[in-house]
Amino acid sequence: MDYTRFTTSSGQSYIMNPAVVSRRPWRKLLWVRQPYPDNYVDASFLSQLKRNLHVQQYSFWALSSDSTVIISHVYSVAILVSVFVAIYKDKYNPAWFASIGSFCTLVGYFAWDGLGKENTTSRTATAKSAILIVSTLLGLSPVLKSLTQSTSSDSIWAISFWLFLLNVFFHDYSIGSKKTFPPTLSTNLAIAAATVLASRLSTTLSVFSFLLFSIELFGLFPIFSRWLRSYSFVAHLILTSILAVVTEVGMFYIGGWWALGVWSIAILSAVFVAPGWLIALQKYKNEIQGPWDPAKPVLRSR
Amino acid sequence: MVSMDDDIGDFQNQAERRSEKSRRNNFHIHLPSTPSIATVLTHGGASISGARSVPVSSADSPTDENELKSDYLSIRNSQHDRHQYLREHIRRDIFLEKNIGLHSYKIGKRRTNVIYSYDEIFKYRKRVQTTIHQSAVHPSVTRVFWPTDCEPQSLEPSVLVGFRNSRSDYVVIAIVPEVDISRMIETLDGRETLEHLSGFASIHGAYDSSKLCVLGTLNFKIKHSLPLVVEMNSRAEKPRFRMQEASTAIQRLNGHAILNGEYGLKFGAMPFLVIFYERPLPRRLQYISFMPINLELADRSNFNTDDEDGKNLRSRRILVDQTRKHTVFGFPQMDKEDCINSWINEINLSHELGSLLEKAVTLTNVLPAESHSLKVRIVVGTKLLISRTRNLLSFLWSLLVMAIMWILMGGLMLYRVASEAVLRIIEWQPKSSIPALKDVSATIQQLDLRLQQACYWPIQYITLRNQKSNLFLKTTFHPEYIRFYNSLWLVANDIIIGAAVGSYIIDNRDYIVAFVDYCINEILTTGLRRTIEWLMDWPGGLKLNNELAAFFGELFLWVIEFWGGYLRIFRPYLPDLVYLIGLSGFIGATFPIALIADLISFLTIQIYCCYLASARICNWQLTVLVSLFHLFRGKRRNVLRNRIDSCDYDLDQLLIGTLLFTLLTFLLPTVLVFYLTFACARLGIILINAMLESSLALLNHFPLFAIMLRLKDSKRLPGGIEFDLVEQSARDDGSVGTVYVQLKPIALPVTAMFQQYFLLSKRIQRHYLSLRVIALLLTGQFVPIQRSRLYSLQYSMLPENRFGIWELWFRLHEFSVTVREEVKKKFALIISK
């Protein structure tokens, strides 16, 4: 065996300096028997290390304009909650909200139908499914009204809060327009939350109106807003600002000036402070790459 | 499974050898001695050793005397072969140690390893058979079976008669004192007398008559040329055996010792294995058997084999068969594999043949009558007179039997036709999905069982009668006999207990009626109503959906009220019904029990209906919830691949699905609470019914007769055999001289009698106390009660397909013909004298 022992007479092993004993240079190969001890570390060991290879440099305005996507979804949740509070307090006719929602949906549909080029579903199919949903809602409303009668309100608020939170987390915020839509889980979570909330309402009409409104808001509006964003960014900004105004009004209605202030601060910090913070944190980024990384399998995202 | 390891070892050994052919050659040349029972039982009874044999010296095998002594091994031709052989031999000895007692072995006072599972017995039997067979074929040891119960009283000189299975294998069946050897041989040669004496034609072919011969002598002073010479000084002492060498077997080989055949053994040096046995008395229906007696019918002993247990059993049997194919012994396979069975057969025959022989010998003594004195003539005359009167009496008896039989036959046929009609009605299934009447009601099931038993009895009786005349079908005769009388006993018992139970019921009719009344009014109507009202009103703080709970409550209340109304109509007839139940006790205690079980089922039909409805709803809701949950996550179940796939649903599907999912989730507790209430009620009823039905099973199937036999005479229920080391004597040179072994029949253990019950309890446990059942119950699926499975125990004493009317007629006819012929024969006997 051409194996040199690097052990002194006292039994300690040490690393030989390659300059002193001329040997073959060390190679980073496990399967080759080399004249070096097992714990030997060569100077060239980390030579192929790379840092922050894939890190992108963000621009502040790009980040804050992108954050409007998140903001607009949070707006729709806030709008739904405000509408629920309005109906629950019994101060407005619930049919109003349903009519406003339906009107906006129709406007949006025609805009989408008229301007969009890649419509795949026929109008009759859309109308058919709309009628189906509305009639199902009509049929189920009385049942839903009494669904959680024996449950206390607090547990319903807690359930709907968690469902909305999960919905916000699971929502598909990706900008690319070519994604298949809708993202199933977040839509379902939102609808479930709306159903649970609706079961607290007192009249069949309010249950129906609220559910219709929430379906328009969570089922149809995301499709429209996504299309609009890809169609024109300015239009998207306009829509977001309209939503912002509506939400501010709703917040004011729910909690007065105090709620309005908190809400505005939260939204403004999400749009302006959070991107700045992210950029400031970029300098701590330390991503290490090297030839030892295992190959990453490419998985289907959904 | 130590034996499996042995198999592997053998297999490896086989791999070492080049081919089968060379192995055989090896065997013939290099394996001069093989282990046997005798050899196993040396060394103080606890350890094992091979047979001591005389070394065959050859040029390249240096003999080490010390090693030989310690191992008791024979010499091999080469050193290498010898080592290999040593290994193999020792291993085989270990195997023998484990299996020496066949089913159980006993060393000293400790008995171990009693095996009763079919597979294992089968495997071990094969193994032990082979081993014993080897030792039978290889004359390394001379084996003598010695009947201890027929040693002559005063140890007068006697002649040993028995079977000579091979040159070194003798089964002594009779020790006949005060007889000349030549006369004995004559008697045996004139076998016609023997067969004539036996009075049965069946003695032909029951044994290999060429093997039956005079084997040797006991305490004989005169020189003779028979192989066995036995001396016995006192009855307390063990007999001493000596072998006389047959001159034909002696050859001179290599100028060495006198050798016996090709096996390289000195004839006189061969150790004796004396196996003492007590002759089983056929008149008392005793016999010994290698396999435990099977109390069930063969095709019924493992229940029906198309269910899960049967499949397991079958696959295990296939495995065992395959492993047996891999088994390699260092011996060539012999033609006569059933060596052990032939011994057992001979031992079973011994008493009968021995008494026949004694009769024959005395007959040859007596026949030349004129040469004897008056005294002898008087004795002979009285004997003749007695036999004649006996003949006459038996003739009259059989005449009577015939007359009764003719009357009975008509009655039997009439009964059979009637019962066939009833059975047809009971078993009629309009469609395969609709259960037959007997599967619905316990009473009708019981009726069916009794009718089938009654149909089977005549056939059983005829079979018994036919087999009784045949001496040598004991192994099939005895179980049949036990089965027949067991079922008769059980029915008689049933009727006795039933009379007591029935009269008790009739005497306390008023109390019982009051109790049933209370049950109907308080528990089945008011109690149920109260429970449902409680369920409708947020039971135990559970917040149910008010509307749904109200709906369910109303529905079930309506069902209960409806049935309660019917029960009120039925109320006035209750005393009569109880009286009827009491009366039915007089045809067996099983009938009141079955009627009570049916009554309980009848009174609780409303609970069954409610259970069924709520289970359906619950199960439906759970199924829908599961698939909607998949939709909620954006997945769906792929039935084709049996997995969960992701799926892009349409928006309207999603919306409606989510709505329904939320709805059903909130309604689930309500449905579940109602379902569980009725499921618990149903379980309680099933438990009560199961208790009643298991008591039915006990009454119908308890092995009463077998247990009685076990207590009275355990030899009638053989469960195998075992060998006990009694004593061993050494020769002057230190080698093994004679080993005395006692052959003992093992009685069938009680656990084997209750085998069916164990199987049944295991099955019930598997089907009703498993997690699967709990899961089924919780998800509202139907938990099947397989009555037919539960009842397979009850029918295990009956053949699968009952004998038809024509079959019965033919059998009866045949039977009558044989009886008539018997009568004719007896008549001829009387006429002739």
Break the fold down into its secondary structure elements and pairings.
The complex is a heterodimer of chains A (302) and B (833).
Chain A: E1 50-51, H1 60-88, H2 94-115, H3 123-145, H4 153-170, H5 184-198, H6 204-231, H7 233-281, E2 288-289
Antiparallel strand pairs in A: 1-2
Chain B: H1 2-16, H2 20-30, H3 37-40, H4 65-71, H5 79-99, E1 105-107, E2 110-112, H6 118-137, E3 142-147, E4 158-166, E5 169-177, H7 181-189, H8 191-198, E6 212-218, E7 228-231, E8 240-243, E9 250-252, E10 258-260, E11 272-277, H9 308-326, H10 339-366, H11 374-427, H12 437-440, H13 442-468, H14 474-507, H15 509-536, H16 546-570, H17 574-584, H18 590-603, H19 605-632, E12 635-638, E13 643-646, H20 651-701, H21 704-712, E14 718-730, E15 736-747, H22 750-753, H23 755-768, H24 771-778, H25 787-791, H26 805-832
Helix pairs in contact in B: 1-5, 7-10, 8-10, 11-13, 11-26, 13-14, 13-18, 13-26, 14-17, 15-16, 15-17, 16-19, 17-18, 18-20, 19-20
Describe the protein in words.
The complex is a heterodimer of chains A (302) and B (833). Helices cover 61% and strands 1% of the residues of chain A. Chain A contains seven helices and two strands, in the order βαααααααβ. Chain A has helices at 60-88, 94-115, 123-145, 153-170, 184-198, 204-231, 233-281, and strands at 50-51, 288-289. In chain A, strands 1-2 form a two-stranded antiparallel ribbon. The longest helix of chain A is centred in the last third of the chain and has 49 residues, at 233-281. Mean pLDDT of chain A is 83; it is low at 1-14. With 833 residues, chain B is an alpha/beta fold. A nine-stranded mixed β-sheet of chain B has the order 8-7-6-4-5-3-11-15-14. In chain B, strands 1-2 form a two-stranded antiparallel sheet. At the A-B interface, helix 3, helix 5 and helix 6 of A face helix 20 of B.
